[in-house]
Design goal:
Helices cover about 30% and strands about 15% of the residues. The protein is of the alpha/beta class. The longest helix is centred in the first third of the chain and has 15 residues.
Amino acid sequence: MRLLSALVVVATVLGASVPAPAQDANVDLELVLAVDVSGSVDTFEARLKRQGYIDALTDPRFLQAVRNGRHGRVAVTYLEWGGWGLFPHVVDWHVISDEASARAFVGRLGHIEPSFRGTSISGAIGLSLQLFALNPHRGDRKVIDISGDGPNNEGLSVVSYRDLAVSRGITINGLPILADVGNVVPDLDVYYEECVIGGAGAFVIAAQDFESFADAVLRKLILEIADTTPVAPVAPVVRAQFLQPGRPGGGAVGAPQTKAPRYFPYCDIPNNGRRMIFPAPNEL
């Protein structure tokens, strides 16, 4: 609960700078860009990721997708995340409707923050939920766009936070980077499908490496703006089948369970013995 309270405090401090809602604050989409800058991402790779978003958000194809919306504008915010408690909020909520507003947004992405130890996807989702509450713009849809190159290994249960977001009508889409994953999660795109994404029309678009990240970002953003899933949709998520061998009530990964577990240890993979916390739903 102390960790959760810290998230609320961070979001409250950020909220002090949020302007009062405009009289007409409707947008087609409220989009949180949650970008992994954990210890596995070096400065060069972090720069490639930032540049990927800069290029995608100013691309004519993205801007055309924005203009095609009912309101012709979207509200976007950009945060970076690493281990639990390390979530710098880089760019506050900003409405993008044309090239000028897009360039005003990406102009804030020039400074590269240092990489952070640990990978807390659950923390990124938790802060994203707080940012939606602080957004002065009201969208027809809410989406958290999570990109990363590893599994949740610090903080709270990623499944608990994902399900909390989905229960609030929020969609989580994933952009896993398949390079440098090693043996921890050999198929990170499958991990994202099974443990991270959720909500209406949720999908995963994978980047093979950091160099191909920009193309994946552009495709993903256009699909999100247009509210369209990829031609090849992801497989349905079977959430009650991800207990590791030797876990209480477990068997082989993927073996049918007679009773759905309270949480899913396979989705939370502790890193170097760090503590993982699995709260009951009423503790979120």
